[in-house]
Amino acid sequence: MAAKEVMIVRPASLLIAAAAAVALPAAASPELAQKKNCLACHTVDKKIVGPAYKDIAAKYAGQKDAADRLADKIMKGGVGAWGQVPMPANPGVSAAEAKQLANWILSLK
Ligand code: HEC
């Protein structure tokens, strides 16, 4: 009896696990932005404290070193590219995470 119940439950939980694995890569960067508190000041398409990510993507479109420069700025913060409001440094963001976030932002249209 008990063994049969386990057999019935298992395929369903496998399906859920497979669905989660498929959903993860596409959602990874927005989730990282959420986790690192970027979305307190930014959204994808509206300026709040910081510029909209789509506006950032448009501004740097076609500049091949943009991802590196933005990753650096994401970690260290800075001011003057968009106005007088500074972005504080984000010390909780690693170089790899900053690069991932920069590439995601630049991919937005
Ligand atoms: C406290 C508010 C705040 C937080 C938190 C914040 N930002 Fe910003 N961000 C700003 C402001 C303000 C600017 C505009 C700075 C300027 O004019 O140079 C900016 C600019 C940027 C830019 C454009 C830089 C440039 O030189 O054009 C990127 C990319 C960016 N932020 C990404 C991020 C990411 C990724 C995070 C999370 C790790 C983050 N921001 C967290 C306020 C914030």
Give the helix/strand layout:
Blueprint: H1 2-35, H2 53-59, H3 66-76, H4 95-107
The structure holds heme C.
Key traits:
single chain, 109 residues, mainly alpha, Cytochrome Bc1 Complex, Chain D, domain 2, 4 helices, 60% helix, binds heme C
Kindly describe this structure.
By secondary structure, the protein is mainly alpha-helical. It has one domain: Cytochrome c-like domain (Cytochrome Bc1 Complex, Chain D, domain 2, Orthogonal Bundle). It is built from four helices and no strands. The chain has helices at 2-35, 53-59, 66-76, 95-107. The longest helix is centred in the first third of the chain and has 34 residues, at 2-35. The structure holds heme C.
> What is the number of strand segments?
0
What's the Cα radius of gyration?
19 Å
Question: So, CATH architecture?
Answer: Orthogonal Bundle
What is the beta-strand fraction?
under 5%
Quaternary structure annotation? single chain
Question: Which ligands, by name, code or SMILES, are bound?
Answer: heme C
Note the run of SSEs as H and E: HHHH
Into how many domains do the coordinates divide? 1
